[in-house]
Amino acid sequence: MAKAADTGSKRLISLAPNAWAQWVTQLPDVVAQEILSAEFQWISRETDVLIKAYSESCGDFLILNELQLRYPKNMPLRMRAYAALAEEKYQLPIYPVLINILPPPSTITVVSSYQSEFLGLRVIQDYHVINLWEVDAEIVFSQPLPSLLPFVPILRGGAETSVVQRALQQLRTSEQFNQLEPLLAFFASFVLDIPLVQQIMRWDMTVLRESPWYQEILTEGLQKGIQQGIQQGIQQGVQQGVQQGLQQGARRQLIQVLQLRFGAIPQQVQDRLQDQSIEQLENLMAAAIAVNSVDEFLQNLP
Hints:
Order of helices and strands: HHEEEHEEEEHHHHHHHHHHH
Distance between the termini: 32 Å
Number of strands: 7
Largest sheet: 5 strands, mixed
């Protein structure tokens, strides 16, 4: 059974660290010397990967890689904090990079800088942003970039069956790469029919459940629900408010997953989810990822 680290950021980047460093910095002569610990005194981020790199033009420096499933509003502040902590710990110049995997909601704008001013003092932290949905899938094969192979289905031009199969063939070239096949299947399920995905590649739910990005999709709604529930609890009673917030958060995230996979969801479907319990919504989340259509999803509703 693969561990979470086997399908996480560090595992992916370690497949070809030099190619990754050259891609994110656009420096053809950069060399990745080693992957350093991203654990600091106060925080530890599994999605952070810190690379010590070298190039003739820059000398020794750090590349801070943050792979984010969806861009959150507080990302600029977090990038500032991570960059400062890494620079302080290793005493080297730092090049922060934010890689966004899935597009954020239309209400959120992705920015590439943190800026604040207080009593005439200014703080500015720039960082390089890479949105995977804007990256051409062909670059994965031409450079090559094996670390991006599991993400090919969600890259620009990567939603075609032939392109996904090409990525699958690349992963199967070695035992080191083929451990990432379930992760490729997971992202392929966003753009291809589930039966087709299961037909052409290994669909291992045990491995997928241990993927940090799979877990983030399942728990995102519950986390929002907890926050909303606490706020409601002030007026309605903590226990009742948290419970309602959990249900609403889980329902909202389930609808988002259905919309990502099938587009607009009929209001009658959303209404039928209104009274489902948290346990039922969790089961329906797994069904939403596995089914092939909204009609098939309806068959799983109580």
